[in-house]
Amino acid sequence: MPMFSTDSSCDIFYQIDDFTDPWNPAETVVLLHGNAESGEAWRSWIPHLGRHLRIIRPDLRGFGRSTATLEGFPWTLKVLGDDLIKLTQHLKIQSFHLVAAKIGGTIALNFAAEHPELVKTLTVLGAPPSPKNSLAHTVAVWVEQLKKDGLEPWARESMRGRLGSRAPEKMLEYWTQLMAKTALSTQLGFMKMVPTLDVRPGLSKIQCPTLVITTTGSGLGSVQDTESWCKLIKHATMLVLDDDSYHVAAVKAEESAAATLDFIQKHSS
Question: Which helix (H) or strand (E) holds 240?
Answer without folding.
Answer: strand 236-241
